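Let's see one such:

===
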Amino acid sequence: MKAVYFEAHGGPEVLQYGDVPDPVAGAGQVVVDVHAASVNGADWQMRQGSYRQTPDLPHILGRDFSGVVSAVGEDADLAIGDPVFGVCDNAGGVMDEGAYAEKIAVKAAILARKPDSLTHIEAAAVALTGLTAVVSIEDTLQLQAGETILIQGGAGGVGGFAVQLAKHLGARVITTASAANLDYVRHLGADEVIDYHQVDFADVVSDCDAVFDTVGSDVIERCYTVLRPGGRIASIAVGVELPPTSRDDIVRLRPSVLRDRAHLEHIVDLVQSGAVALPEISTYPLRDAAIAHRVSEGRHLRGKLVLEVR
């Protein structure tokens, strides 16, 4: 099968497109013929070597995908021909990858059936971003109606889903974005939008019940200042530990984005009900993954990047 992989950490130029062995379904697994694979910031950070986890080389990137089941292992509860989407496993804290390929072997229990109302590209675009947003906003921060939340990076894949989900839950949503994306995040439902190039959010935001950070860097420490006593902050910034603070009246959280079918089905319900709209999606052929990585690394992407595999 064809796949995109790297044999050494580095820039986008280390990505290679070529032939690798086909995967085989083990017990409880299925092989999925991948039609579309999402591009996430975590992908190029893994390629750069930013993770503590050191992958075996050569390594095929890609964490979320959509496709059709082509082989079924023992005790798997899916059938050949089922259209499915999902996110690679992270059991035991070890992240599986491999979606930048024509085939992938995955546990059947962590996949969901793709509805006819979503294309493979659309399903891939909301898999990991939706899962991360739902786990962070609903499960970790436990956002409630009437609360105020600051979402850092509202134009990105996760941020855009989170803005809409928070509004669906009845919260007042403040978010940051670049000037080019202000109207976009307003359209997603944000009540207040801050151009981070022009205004320091810490100067104009206060008394938030919750903060959801997708950016990292020094942003997290400044987020502490906008929280009311008893407020909660959760960050998904890769490789970033929540920095210490002298404030003992706030709760610092790190979402644990476990994979399961129930969360994916919840994402489908949110999209099909109209509570969350699909993001803007830009597509690239699988062989052009390096180009997609350069766009993603620019950190000003609106919506999602998806690789068309078939």
User: Anything to note?
Assistant: Residues 207 and 228 are 4 Å apart (CA to CA). The chain has a mean pLDDT of 94. The domain at 129-253 is CATH 3.90.180.10 (Quinone Oxidoreductase; Chain A, domain 1).
